[in-house]
Write a structure and sequence with these properties.
Largest sheet: 7 strands, mixed
Strand order of the largest sheet: 1-2-3-4-5-8-9
Number of strands: 16
Strand content: 25-35%
Number of helices: 8
Shape: globular
CATH architecture: 4-Layer Sandwich
Radius of gyration: 18 Å
CATH topology: Metallo-beta-lactamase, Chain A
Helix content: 10-25%
Structural class: alpha+beta
CATH superfamily: Ribonuclease Z/Hydroxyacylglutathione hydrolase-like
Distance between the termini: 25 Å
CATH class: Alpha Beta
Length: 288
């Protein structure tokens, strides 16, 4: 479990909470980047796995209290646990409670896409073995195209989408499929960032003094900044590169902070233009 970190955006606070530490195959996360290169940044274990976080963000403002992402949760099958490499005790709810937060305070949960490491914690196995909402007072929002693709199974692998992670919320009419760029609450809106999935949407949070973007998997790692550095799990690598370039350009121009969904060391960054390389890159954000 990593420590929570808080940002004051001006009238809006954003608190990062870990949804759990994962150990994922490094080649899958870094795609075409050679291991001799990526292993300098993300050391691999004897099974070729690198250590990642699953960052979640609690946003508190006058418009409401929302949570972005939920990590893998506590419902993983033995095969899924083998793939994600997480600990059974290290997931969002215990980390939420350890930070002194009450899950009943969350009014809405927002997800960038419906892959297990982002939505597994929407529902949990309770002590009696029932599958129940982790955040009992919340409704849930996902992009409309992402929901349509999940229902149709249009993923990079047959198990890219797991209905157990969200089906009960659909049946209870607590899951809201939203169009691109929808305002979720005042000052928080979806930002269409396709490429990792067809309907992937990042989340823009605007305070009175600064703004931040929870990038989801369009920009999962600090070393993913080059447009051609993609994951093996991306459905449209070329489109993702174009999306990433536009996001970094706008983030640099508008001085947005970027919250990277899986980066273990530098989860909060700024976009900067590297004139020598003629490209946008990232630098770690140090609290002011």
């Amino acid at each position: 479990m990593s420590a929570s970190r808080r940002l004051d955006l001006g009238g809006t606070t954003l608190t990062l909470i870990s949804g759990g530490i994962n150990h994922i195959d490094g080649g899958g996360m870094l795609g075409i980047v050679p291991k001799t290169l990526w292993e300098q940044w993300y050391p691999a274990d004897h099974e070729n796995r690198i250590t990642l976080d699953t960052h979640c963000a609690l946003v508190e403002s006058k418009g409401g209290t929302i949570l972005i992402e939920t990590g893998c949760g506590n419902k993983l099958t033995p095969l899924e646990r083998r793939f994600y490499g997480g600990s059974e005790s290290d997931w969002l709810l215990p980390n939420f409670l350890a930070a002194g937060l009450d899950p009943r305070m969350v009014e809405r949960v927002v997800v960038t896409h419906l892959h297990t490491d982002h939505v597994g914690g929407l529902l949990m196995n309770d002590p009696d073995g029932r599958v129940v909402p982790t955040f009992p007072n919340a409704d849930f929002v996902v992009g409309a195209q992402e929901f349509e693709d999940a229902e149709a199974g249009r993923g990079i692998t047959p198990n890219a989408y797991v209905p157990l992670n969200y089906r009960a919320l659909v049946e209870e009419r607590r899951l809201d499929p939203a169009p691109p760029d929808t305002e979720i609450i005042p000052g928080v809106r979806f930002l269409a960032t396709p490429g990792h999935t067809f309907g992937h949407q990042s989340v823009l949070i605007e305070g009175t003094s600064r703004a931040a973007v929870f990038t989801g998997d369009v920009l999962a790692l600090y070393r993913h900044a080059p447009t051609h550095y993609t994951m093996a799990y991306d459905v449209e690598p070329l489109r993702k590169g174009e999306t990433k370039r536009a996001l970094l350009e706008r983030a640099a121009r508008e001085e947005w902070l970027l919250i990277l969904s899986h980066e273990p060391r530098f989860p909060i960054c700024r976009a900067i233009y590297q004139e020598r390389r003629n490209r946008y890159d990232l630098e770690e954000y140090a609290s002011e």
